């Protein structure tokens, strides 16, 4: 089927995104075609800006439009607690809780022996630098509760031991609103291990 | 069509928003891949079953013979949690799974390798020497690929071994060769290493008892088997790099 080059380029562009196949890319491209010129210009500008203006926070390694992100600059935050997370997406999830008022450190992934990802590929040196410079009292390891997340947590807990800082791991167990009878034995074992007095 | 399988999870891969692709090793059908919908969500029943090293009974639904099966039920048989609770054991296990994944194929049964891997993982989970277990796994993988090395006699002339005889490992002959057959290109083997290689080559994981072996002998066995594996399977193991890196820094 013949299509003009500009729309073919746009379809190709959308197809580079994860989870977007040929049909979806085509639908999105034709939606763009129907949009107002101004909206399209805004959209294009947003795409350019996200690459041009975004930086990595020099302290926590989170994405930011400044050298130091808003969270690291916020004076009301508790600088004695650092929560270690894998990705920026995890930071958004943690911030949604409104329960955590400390700082973050984004590792940019997790140790995965199966994928061949070793500790040197993560932003661990900058974390160690923070631990020696800042007055940190607690490090919360909030990596995912899967093999990669556990491996990373184990690695970090041993690495941080010489600093004499309290290292904690987020709890594992049953989801709120879930049913005990449907829980698998690994989750239940973890929930039992992490039980607390009420 | 409903498919019932018993298998061991080799690896998983994120797919879409919250789904995963799961690759399992089954006794009867070799490698099987399936989609696990919503497994990354906290309320999913399949969170634990998608973790590597897990042995489970899987029930899948396949819409058509060419479509990918979708997991509908799973019951864990062995979760091998101890492996995942130790970074070094995880690295050993990951190396095993990658090796196995290289030699198995879809729809082809690999009964011996499946049984051996299950037994070895159970022993790794119980805390047995991971180095010896790794050598057994490497030998099982070589056998599955059709490259089982010859250690029981000279791989060239068939002569039996005399006590304390100097031997060498020949890549071209696929095993140990005697002093008469060895060439300068062959890798010399110490008598203790040759002795243990002969024993391990014909040993099943369930026959393994307590083995007290010198560190040097373990290293020599590793060098020979990995040299042979690299030559025969022609693969670059990314997990082995991580294993070596962690082994040198973690202990």
TrEMBL record, chain A:
Toprim domain residues are: 80-175
Q: Which CDD domains does the record cross-reference, listed alphabetically?
A: TOPRIM_recR
Query: Looking at the keywords, is Zinc-finger present?
Result: yes
Keywords attached to this entry: DNA damage, DNA recombination, DNA repair, Metal-binding, Zinc, Zinc-finger
Instruction: Please list the GO terms describing molecular function.
Output: DNA binding; zinc ion binding
ZnF C4-type: positions = 57-72
> Per the UniProt entry, what are the Gene Ontology biological process annotations, in alphabetical order?
DNA recombination; DNA repair
Work out whether the entry's keyword set contains Metal-binding.
yes
Judging by the UniProt lineage, the source's domain of life is Bacteria
Entries under SUPFAM superfamilies matching the protein: Recombination protein RecR (SSF111304)
Q: What does this protein do?
A: May play a role in DNA repair. It seems to be involved in an RecBC-independent recombinational process of DNA repair. It may act with RecF and RecO.
Family, per entry: Belongs to the RecR family.
Q: Which HAMAP family match?
A: RecR
This chain's protein is named Recombination protein RecR
Give the species: Shimazuella alba
UniProtKB/TrEMBL annotation, chain B:
The lineage's top-level taxon is: Bacteria
Instruction: Please list the coiled coil stretches.
Output: none
A GO CC annotation recorded here is: bacterial nucleoid
Which parts of the chain span the membrane according to its record?
none
InterPro entries in alphabetical order: ARFGAP/RecO (IPR037278), DNA_rep/recomb_RecO_N (IPR022572), NA-bd_OB-fold (IPR012340), RecO (IPR003717), RecO_C (IPR042242)
Task: Give the protein's biological function.
Answer: Involved in DNA repair and RecF pathway recombination.
How is this protein named in the record?
DNA repair protein RecO
Organism, by scientific name, is: Shimazuella alba
């Amino acid at each position: 089927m013949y299509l003009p080059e500009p729309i073919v380029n746009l379809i190709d562009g959308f197809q580079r995104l994860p989870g977007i196949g040929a049909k979806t890319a085509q639908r999105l491209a034709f939606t763009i075609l129907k949009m107002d010129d101004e909206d399209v210009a805004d959209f294009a500008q947003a795409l350019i800006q996200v690459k041009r203006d975004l930086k990595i926070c020099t302290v926590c390694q989170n994405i930011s439009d400044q050298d130091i992100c808003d969270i690291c600059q916020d004076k009301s935050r508790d600088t004695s607690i650092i929560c270690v997370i894998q990705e920026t997406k995890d930071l958004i999830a943690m911030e949604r809780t409104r329960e955590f008022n400390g700082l973050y450190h984004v590792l940019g992934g997790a140790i995965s022996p199966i994928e061949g990802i070793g500790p040197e590929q993560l932003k661990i040196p900058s974390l160690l630098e923070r631990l020696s410079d800042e007055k940190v009292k607690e490090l919360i390891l909030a990596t995912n509760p899967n093999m990669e997340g556990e491996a990373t947590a184990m690695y970090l807990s041993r690495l941080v031991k010489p600093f004499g800082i309290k290292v904690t791991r987020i709890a594992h167990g049953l989801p709120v609103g879930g049913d005990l009878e449907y829980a698998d034995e690994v989750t239940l074992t973890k929930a039992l291990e992490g039980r607390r007095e009420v | 069509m409903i498919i019932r399988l018993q298998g061991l999870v080799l690896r998983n891969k994120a797919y879409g928003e919250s789904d995963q692709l799961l690759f399992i090793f089954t006794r009867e059908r070799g490698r099987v891949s399936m989609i696990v919908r919503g497994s990354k969500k906290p309320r999913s029943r399949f969170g634990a079953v998608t973790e590597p090293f897990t042995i489970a009974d899987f029930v899948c639904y396949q819409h058509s013979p060419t479509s990918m099966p979708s997991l509908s039920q799973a019951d864990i048989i062995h979760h091998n949690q101890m492996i995942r609770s130790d970074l070094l054991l995880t690295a050993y296990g990951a190396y095993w799974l990658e090796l196995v994944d290289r030699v198995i194929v879809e729809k082809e049964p690999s009964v011996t390798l499946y049984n051996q891997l299950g037994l070895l993982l159970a022993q790794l989970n119980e805390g047995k020497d991971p180095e010896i277990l790794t050598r057994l796994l490497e030998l099982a993988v070589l056998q599955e690929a059709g490259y089982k090395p010859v250690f029981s006699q000279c791989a060239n002339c068939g002569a039996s071994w005399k006590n304390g005889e100097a031997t060498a490992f020949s890549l071209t002959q696929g095993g140990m060769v005697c002093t008469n057959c060895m060439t300068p290109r062959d890798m010399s083997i110490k008598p203790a290493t040759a002795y243990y290689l002969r024993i391990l080559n014909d040993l099943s994981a369930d026959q393994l008892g307590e083995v007290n072996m010198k560190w040097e002998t373990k290293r020599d066995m590793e060098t020979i088997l990995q040299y042979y594996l690299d030559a025969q399977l022609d693969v670059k193991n990314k997990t082995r790099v991580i294993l070596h890196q962690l082994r040198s820094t973690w202990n």
